UniProtKB/TrEMBL annotation:
The keyword S-adenosyl-L-methionine does not apply. This is Putative ubiquitinyl hydrolase 1. InterPro entries: MATH/TRAF_dom, MCC, TRAF-like. SUPFAM superfamilies: TRAF domain-like (SSF49599).
Amino acid sequence: MYLNSFTESMYLNVADASKLSSGWSRYAEFTLTIVNQFNSDKSITIGD
């Protein structure tokens, strides 16, 4: 999705990652909602 030169980054952090075994992995699923408080018709949800 392209939002007119708008760039946002999201990083997921793992608690106690140093205690996990080598080669571990985890699947994460999330939804991002951007709310336009002036015009709700322009609010968007990404994911799901």
